[in-house]
Amino acid sequence: MAKNDQGYDFIIVGAGPAGCAAAIDLARSDGHPRVLLLEAGDSNRDVSFRQHSNMLVQMRTESLNWEHKTVDLPHLYGRQINLNRGKGLGGCSAINATFWFRGSRDEWDEISELVGDDDWQWANVRERFKRLENYHHEIEPRSGEKRYYDPGEEAYGTAGGINISSPVTNWTRDMAETADTWAACGYKINPDGSDGDHVGIVMAPLSGYGGIRSTSADLLENAPENLHVRTKSWVYRVQFEDGQAKAVTLSDGEIIRAAKEIILCAGSVDSPKILLHSGIGPAAQLSSHGIPIVYDNKNVGQDLGDHYHMFCFFTNRDDSICRAGAPNGGNIMGFLKSETALRSPEFEALPKNIQRRLQKPTVATFEIAHFGASDRTHPSIHGRNSILVIELLSSQGKGEVTLASADPAMPPLVRPSYLEHPWDKRVAIEATREAMRVMDHASSPKSKVPGTTHVCPKSDSEEDILDYWRRSLISTWHLTGTCKIGKSESADRAVIDPEFKVYGVNGLRVADMSIVPLVPRQVNRFILHPSKLVLPRKSLSLTGCSSHPQTMAYQMGMMVASKLIKEYGLNN
């Protein structure tokens, strides 16, 4: 095997939001450490892949997407679900929907309490966001938008490396019409989602400017000479000497050594995969593939959480406003609470601490994205229609990532838990009923002509709604939890400690969405009878995160860099 001993202090694996943020902050510290950022994909320099109008093209481009899939899921009629994962510089920020939500301040503060680290507190998180952002307000004055979007002049940072822009559209027509319909059905319009509370009907800023998406690769512009970036460098495993992480092995056999530490920022599928191939994980699983055991941690790859959604298509009224083209910057978002779900037997069956969190004012139970009347087609609809996305948040089901083979080139087996937990089913039912009620409102763009074709559940019965979800749901590609952070490896089912260090070894950390601790702790099988909900004898804490991952991932990278800088005295 070829060896590379150029003398790097830190090696960072994965150039998505977490990896790029960690790399640039480390490299710019006063100690000027030698930092190597390794990315398995290409440099993604084709400008056509950065245009907002080509968003769906980017997501479906092989060179930008690992295109992972789940295993066959029997409870979803044997379907496999696509798991889009960014490939190349920028990672998932190069193929995502670009919505820029900072998350719930209640959830940030809860993570701080769970981990015992003030770095996670909302007040500190907000300041890091402002250091990261370069906000552009592109809405013309006096356009009538302030009822719907008014974050204030100092809400966002204006000098950071990631461009953020206000949503741009015809406020007096499609956006206003759709938002007002939701408001007429009792949902508040929230004009400022920047302050840690995006509950309500809210317009999302976008990570981009002037029609060009901003990815984490933008942070690498004008990087100092001590930061080295290598693309097409696929890391297979980490090598250890006496329990100390010393090097990474690439797919071509090249070995690159790190003098200080290695940081995995490869995401919720590939970070646990690298750990497993490196000998860190459940001993039985590693032994079954002939992988030498470095450290037996049964939690690696477990507690997989995700958001998932489905689409409804509604034929528009003849007199409804119809906007041509892509919906980018012109759709209504909603982070909403289902009060019906929060009064249900399924809610009462949840542990009390989870009930308290779900009732906090900034924590939503479901999300909608409503593309106002636009020229869209669907196999079952001819002509214009409006699209309604319903997404489950704070889901309680959990899955796992395991190895399919001892060959690191083989993708792992991903088994999510979609629509299995009783609480998740209840939220899907009640959120769908609410959305259909809104679409039936007199002011909605939906055609009310009898016999009009709509693609949605056949009725509002529980059976029809769940059947529609099982046949049509897809991942929102918000995977979390497979290398969870915690104060205790055993009690918290953790893979890394509060300093992001991997339990059981030295010199290795993980910093990406895989560490997010607001995921289920244990699978519990609930049985629903027509008359009552029967609980198992033992029910441990279950919870799920309601935030979007893009912004959280940047925070992971910034936090791990801060910890490394402090520990190694790089700013002394």
Summarize the structure in words.
The chain has 572 residues and is of the alpha/beta class. The chain has one domain (8-568): FAD/NAD(P)-binding domain, CATH 3.50.50.60. The protein is built from 12 helices and 26 strands. It has helices spanning 17-27, 55-59, 105-115, 122-132, 171-184, 267-277, 283-288, 345-348, 352-358, 422-439, 462-472, 549-567; strands at residues 3-13, 35-38, 68-69, 82-83, 133-136, 162-165, 200-202, 208-209, 212-213, 227-230, 235-241, 244-250, 255-264, 280-281, 295-296, 308-315, 331-336, 366-374, 385-392, 400-402, 413-415, 454-455, 474-475, 508-510, 527-528, 533-534. Strands 1, 2, 10, 11, 12, 13 and 24 form a 7-stranded mixed β-sheet that branches. A hairpin with a 4-residue loop joins strand 12 (244-250) and strand 13. Helix 1 (17-27) packs parallel to helix 12 (549-567) and helix 10 (422-439) crosses helix 11. The radius of gyration is 23 Å and the shape is globular. Residues 325-329, 375-380 and 519-543 have low confidence and may be disordered.
List keywords for this structure.
572 residues; Choline dehydrogenase; alpha/beta; FAD/NAD(P)-binding domain; seven-stranded antiparallel sheet; globular
Q: What kind of sheet is the major sheet?
A: 7 strands, mixed
Helical residues, percent: 10-25%
How many strands in all?
A: 26
* Tally of individual domains: 1
Find the CATH topology. FAD/NAD(P)-binding domain
Question: CATH architecture, please?
Answer: 3-Layer(bba) Sandwich
Outline the low-pLDDT stretches.
Answer: 325-329, 375-380, 519-543
* Average pLDDT rating: 88
Q: Measured on Cα atoms, how large is the radius of gyration?
A: 23 Å
Q: DSSP helix count?
A: 12
Summing up helix and strand content along with how strands pair, one would put the structural category as: alpha/beta
N- to C-terminal separation?
38 Å
How much β-strand is present in the residues?
Answer: 15-25%
CATH class: Alpha Beta
User: What's the name of the CATH homologous superfamily?
Assistant: FAD/NAD(P)-binding domain
Shape: globular
Family: Belongs to the GMC oxidoreductase family.
Domain Glucose-methanol-choline oxidoreductase N-terminal: 267-281
Protein name: Choline dehydrogenase
Cofactor: FAD
